[in-house]
Amino acid sequence: MAMAALRREGKRFALSSPNPINVLRSSLAPSEEQMSLGVRGISTQIVRNRMKSVKNIQKITKAMKMVAASKLRAIQVRAENSRGLWQPFTALLGDIPSVDVKKNVIVTISSDKGLCGGINSTSVKISRAMHRLTSGPDKESTYVILGEKAKAQLIRDSRNFIELSITELQKNFLNYTQVSVLAEEILKNVEYDALRVVFNKFQSVVSFLPTTATILSPEVVEREAEAGGKLGDLDAYEIEGGETKSEILQNLAEFQFSCVMFNAVMENACSEQGARMSAMDSSSRNAGEMLDRLTLTYNSIVDDAECGAFNRLRIFGDLPRFGPASSNSIVGTQ
Amino acid sequence: MFRQATARLLSRSAAASPKARPFSTDLESAPAADQAFVDAWKKVAPNMDPPKTPLSFMKPRPPTPSSIPSKLIVNFSLPYASELSGKEVDMVIVPATTGQMGILPGHVPTIAELKPGLMTVHEGNDVQKYFVSSGFALVHANSFADIIAVEAVPVDRIDPTLVQKGLAEFTQKLNSASTELEKAEAQIGLDVHSALSSALSG
């Protein structure tokens, strides 16, 4: 019945050019929708705006995920290659985080950019706990911070304990020369008995393990070697070259620090990209779900509007657009 | 419906078992964490897991054997690659600061600092020559030799003309150097290039 009415009206105006009618129809349609929707209280305009912005967010986060994936691929290879670097030192000297020393320096490695999930917060939490562990009546510990994010978090409550902070590490391509210069700077400016490097080790794209590597100063190494225990058989090693054993041990400690730092920085960069990938992935998935919900809302609003229009036709026998008693006199001409 | 459920269960258990599938470069080893550290951590931060330490990511080294083994196991690592990893060789000659040092299986444990020079790896009749910049060579009691260098290139990739040019350049720089720092830098450059040229010839 509605269809017959439509066809009747359509024939009446078939002589005039269809375009103006279409234009009018389309211009009338939203206002008509709004008129009948005004009764409902929700405008489709709002919903449509939200849908557009959510769709944009989805596109952006998907693009960020792709970028992070490609960066991860590039840096993962290098990080895996650098894993062999610190193993000889650990094989020789072991790794004893429970060593009891007076001056501890906690080197926290974090990223400069955000949107990378929770890895920076994890590093900061671990650093704070290490600080509590290594502070006591006759011990002290200070921070050296690499990366903006850890600096922002640690400066709030531990400002007095921060010795050095370094940012914009990844501006140039990460390489060993840069890290060794950095290590030299740290060793020059900071007094230490033990250096504890805190970073996120890259296990897989979804798993990053907080790790801490301990490097002892040469004096502590000698002390521990004499005390026995894990470093006890260090004395069995003959020293080639150099005049004194302590000189060689000094060079060894510095070299160990730069190697461990290099690996730590690479692993942390890998973890950053992996965490960003998964964060952006879940973000675009959430945006997609939100978009689905909004689409359903939009469709139900439009359906309600059309349903209302048909009901009017059924009850009053006319379509609101083409009603003879309506004030749409523009349509009534020609 | 039941078939689907069982399939899903199987896939989930299969996915869960290699949960933290390790890379081949690092495996969990038996002497994992430092127990004293874990205990101290629990006192300070009971709700957090303690961080891992490098020991848990390293393959454990075998203990010192009673008799001298026949082969030496060499790990040659650089910042960008592990050139040799767990390779069994007969002999390695490294350029220590005191001169060329030969390492054979059963060598006494040594820590040697390296200077720029030629390093050769002998396996049977096969000899590989590398030019290393400085680094360290660690020999352990169980016939493991770890050589860590900052840079190393196989000798056949060095260009002799560039070596000659570098030699001339640094000799000239040394003669015209004024401050201590410049002199030291020029001396280092000269040492490296003369070692390079002798490596190429020797």
From TrEMBL, chain A:
Official protein name in the record: ATP synthase subunit gamma
Matches recorded under Pfam families: ATP-synt (PF00231)
GO molecular function: proton-transporting ATP synthase activity, rotational mechanism
Predominant location: membrane
Subunit composition and interactions: F-type ATPases have 2 components, CF(1) - the catalytic core - and CF(0) - the membrane proton channel. CF(1) and CF(0) have multiple subunits.
Keywords: ATP synthesis, CF(1), Hydrogen ion transport, Ion transport, Membrane, Transport
SUPFAM superfamilies tied to this protein: ATP synthase (F1-ATPase), gamma subunit
PANTHER family: ATP SYNTHASE GAMMA CHAIN, ATP SYNTHASE SUBUNIT GAMMA, MITOCHONDRIAL
Described purpose of this protein according to its UniProt entry: Mitochondrial membrane ATP synthase (F(1)F(0) ATP synthase or Complex V) produces ATP from ADP in the presence of a proton gradient across the membrane which is generated by electron transport complexes of the respiratory chain. F-type ATPases consist of two structural domains, F(1) - containing the extramembraneous catalytic core, and F(0) - containing the membrane proton channel, linked together by a central stalk and a peripheral stalk. During catalysis, ATP synthesis in the catalytic domain of F(1) is coupled via a rotary mechanism of the central stalk subunits to proton translocation.
Homology family: Belongs to the ATPase gamma chain family.
A GO CC annotation given for this chain: proton-transporting ATP synthase complex
Subcellular locations according to the entry: Membrane
Superkingdom per UniProt: Eukaryota
Membrane-topology descriptor: Peripheral membrane protein
TrEMBL record, chain B:
Domain of life: Eukaryota
SUPFAM superfamilies associated with the record: Epsilon subunit of F1F0-ATP synthase N-terminal domain
GO cellular component: a single term: mitochondrial inner membrane
InterPro entries: ATP_synth_F1_dsu/esu (IPR001469), ATP_synth_F1_dsu/esu_N (IPR020546), ATPsynth_dsu/esu_N (IPR036771)
Domain ATP synthase F1 complex delta/epsilon subunit N-terminal: 79-143
Keyword terms: ATP synthesis, CF(1), Hydrogen ion transport, Ion transport, Membrane, Mitochondrion, Mitochondrion inner membrane, Transit peptide, Transport
Main localization category: mitochondrion
Subcellular locations according to the entry: Mitochondrion inner membrane
Pfam families registered for this protein in UniProt: ATP-synt_DE_N
TM segment ranges: none
Molecular function terms from GO: proton-transporting ATP synthase activity, rotational mechanism
Subunit description: F-type ATPases have 2 components, CF(1) - the catalytic core - and CF(0) - the membrane proton channel. CF(1) has five subunits: alpha(3), beta(3), gamma(1), delta(1), epsilon(1). CF(0) has three main subunits: a, b and c.
UniProt record similarity statement: Belongs to the ATPase epsilon chain family.
NCBIfam families: ATP_synt_epsi
PANTHER family: ATP SYNTHASE DELTA/EPSILON CHAIN, ATP SYNTHASE SUBUNIT DELTA, MITOCHONDRIAL
HAMAP family: ATP_synth_epsil_bac
Role summary: Mitochondrial membrane ATP synthase (F(1)F(0) ATP synthase or Complex V) produces ATP from ADP in the presence of a proton gradient across the membrane which is generated by electron transport complexes of the respiratory chain. F-type ATPases consist of two structural domains, F(1) - containing the extramembraneous catalytic core, and F(0) - containing the membrane proton channel, linked together by a central stalk and a peripheral stalk. During catalysis, ATP turnover in the catalytic domain of F(1) is coupled via a rotary mechanism of the central stalk subunits to proton translocation.
Protein name: ATP synthase subunit delta', mitochondrial
Organism: Escallonia herrerae
